[in-house]
Amino acid sequence: MTSIDVQDLTKEYGATRAVDRLTFRVEPGRVTGFLGPNGAGKSTTMRLVLGLDRPTSGSATLGGRAYVTLEEPLRHVGALLDAGAAHGSRTARDHLRVLAASNRLPGRRVDEVLEEVGLAPVARRRVRTYSLGMRQRLGIAAALLGDPRVVLLDEPSNGLDPEGIVWIRELLRRLAREGRTVLVSSHLMNETASFADHLVVLGRGRLLADMPMRDFIHARVEPSVRVRTTDGAVLRDLLARHGYDAVEREDRDDGGGDGDGSGGRWIVRHARVADIGRLVSGAGLPVLELAALDGTLEQAYLDLTAAETEFAARPASPSPIRPQEV
Ligand SMILES: Nc1ncnc2c1ncn2[C@@H]1O[C@H](COP(=O)(O)OP(=O)(O)OP(=O)(O)O)[C@@H](O)[C@H]1O
């Protein structure tokens, strides 16, 4: 199995330390989301892993080997770093055929990956006529060409239409199921939440988090419960007697209640759905609605990176944050 190992990695550009003593491992068989604010060092780290730049110190290896020592590297590692990398005057098919030939890959792989990324019908068009999303698909085709064990994708959803976004999500999940090592950078938190199992988060070149996505969210966003019963006042007193901090939330649609005289929904902070359900039904109150409010990756991420964002356009959000009251 091929992991990516980043060990004490540092990269300086003049006075800028883009990557700062970074150590983490990307394991096979899962999708690792690579997150961090603009300028955090994600692309630089990927470039160092791919041997496109030399570290100032430390190392980045694939299955224990530096990229530059790999023969026919596309057979080991596929990467999408810059969707504009293909030559505009070439057709997509020719672009891939050149790549395949230089890595001694069979020509049939070109047609297979063009089919896989949905570009087969336009494969003979020049790349300069491609839209951003089509170029992105071509970059992904190039990454998959050598059937590699390791896949690194920098912002793969960039420019993709909704169908393309669903497609990339399913592709990433499948690559992980096949036991490949998949590292994907993104600024789209909902997207990342839909495909990542694990997260590596950077801030100003340093490692801020390296953990399962679920743990990352649970550690930062307090769990809450949404509940509605036939009698809001009785519910409020009951919850208060048991020490729960609950607030009534006006319904957005009709300004309160569902026409059944029950009042609005209550959001109970620091609560688990089983505890609130037991309490309310134990008191004999009919439950009209009961739901766990899970924190989102976006909330957890913003909480962590608020202090790390070099180019923040607004003040940091208060902490701790609550799940979205949807
Ligand atoms: N070739 C370079 N020369 C000088 N500085 C660079 C170079 N490449 C990156 N940097 C600097 O290194 C830091 C990290 O940049 P990097 O592109 O790795 O961040 P990133 O996390 O990928 O950001 P983004 O999310 O905006 O793509 C930034 O301060 C950037 O300006």
TrEMBL record:
<dbReference type="GO" id="GO:0005524">
    <property type="term" value="F:ATP binding"/>
</dbReference>
<dbReference type="InterPro" id="IPR017871">
    <property type="entry name" value="ABC_transporter-like_CS"/>
</dbReference>
<dbReference type="InterPro" id="IPR027417">
    <property type="entry name" value="P-loop_NTPase"/>
</dbReference>
<comment type="similarity">
    <text>Belongs to the ABC transporter superfamily.</text>
</comment>
<feature type="domain" description="ABC transporter">
    <location>
        <begin position="4"/>
        <end position="229"/>
    </location>
</feature>
<protein>
    <submittedName>
        <fullName>ABC transporter ATP-binding protein</fullName>
    </submittedName>
</protein>
<keyword id="KW-0067">ATP-binding</keyword>
<dbReference type="InterPro" id="IPR003439">
    <property type="entry name" value="ABC_transporter-like_ATP-bd"/>
</dbReference>
<keyword id="KW-0813">Transport</keyword>
<dbReference type="Pfam" id="PF00005">
    <property type="entry name" value="ABC_tran"/>
</dbReference>
<dbReference type="InterPro" id="IPR003593">
    <property type="entry name" value="AAA+_ATPase"/>
</dbReference>
<dbReference type="GO" id="GO:0016887">
    <property type="term" value="F:ATP hydrolysis activity"/>
</dbReference>
<keyword id="KW-0547">Nucleotide-binding</keyword>
